[in-house]
Structures are given as C-alpha cells and as structure tokens.
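4.2 Preliminary Data

To establish feasibility before requesting continued support, the project team ran the inverse folding procedure on a target of 158 residues. The structure was first converted into the token representation described in Section 3, and no sequence information of any kind was made available to the design step. The complete token record follows.
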C-alpha cells in the first residue's frame, strides 16, 4: 500500500510539472542550476527531458551506499516516466465495501516498454536523517521521439 501511495504521489508530481514549457532546458549540458529549477518536456522534435525522484532504503550503513541507492531509484523513476509518456499505462482499481461503507481500495499501474539512450544529465542528492533523497534530470535524444510518443499514445486511445 505504501508503494502504491508513492507511485500515485510521483504521478501527481509528474503531471503537475510535465505540462510546463522548455524554460531552463538550455542549461542542462553546462550543469547549471538545480534539478528542481529545470523543467520537463519535449525540446523540439528529437529530445525528451524527464525528472526522477528516489530515496535510499532504510538500513544502509555508508553514505555512499545510500546515495547510490537513491540515485538508482531516481533513475528508474525517470525511466518509468518516459515509458508512461510514450507508451501509456494500464490502470487497474479495486474497492471493498463493508456494511455500505468503503472498507478499502487499491489502484495498480502496469507499465511495459523498452528504452534506450536515456542519460542522467544532472543529479542532486540530499541527506535527510538516516536516508538520502535524490533527484535526477534525464535526457533522451532520439530522432523523432516526440512524434513516436504521440503516435503511440494515439494508438492507445483507439
């Protein structure tokens, strides 16, 4: 249930930031600015920029392990967003009613896809108590990626 809540939170955060323009994207290659100050979205027809968020699991001992785990989680979150943008997601939901009152509900998301060429252009990590949180900015450079994603999403809506 906790994993589901995090997935829903990431999806809401992504939708809130994905609808932005391309302000700040010119600074990615130079490494200027924080991940938070840069925006997600398509840059022209051949580039897609996404953000990923991740935290280290509890119980890791060294700060290097914590940072590496958080960066990997953020990278995987970014890859998940690319697949969701370009291939869509299957959503399944279930609810339980007991004595005419909602007793519980669950929502699941299934993603499938292949991705090649995603590069982490910037990463910001910050310790927070016993865990580390990381944000990454990923860039996918592929000729015609915007058109490919739009065509794939159009196929899903048929």
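Position-by-position output of the design step:
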């Amino acid at each position: 249930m906790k994993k589901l809540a995090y997935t829903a939170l990431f999806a809401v955060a992504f939708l809130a930031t994905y609808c932005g323009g391309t302000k700040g994207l010119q600074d990615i290659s130079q490494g200027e600015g924080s991940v938070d100050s840069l925006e997600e979205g398509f840059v022209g027809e051949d580039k897609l920029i996404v953000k990923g968020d991740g935290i280290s699991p509890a119980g890791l001992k060294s700060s290097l392990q914590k940072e590496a785990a958080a960066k990997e989680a953020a990278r995987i979150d970014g890859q998940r967003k690319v697949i969701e943008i370009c291939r869509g997601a299957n959503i399944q939901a279930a609810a339980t009613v007991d004595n005419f009152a909602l007793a519980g509900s669950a929502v699941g998301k299934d993603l499938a896809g292949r991705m090649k060429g995603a590069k982490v252009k910037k990463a910001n990590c910050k310790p927070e108590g016993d865990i580390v949180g990381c944000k990454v900015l990923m860039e996918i450079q592929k000729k015609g990626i915007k058109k490919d994603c739009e065509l794939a999403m159009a196929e899903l809506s048929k």
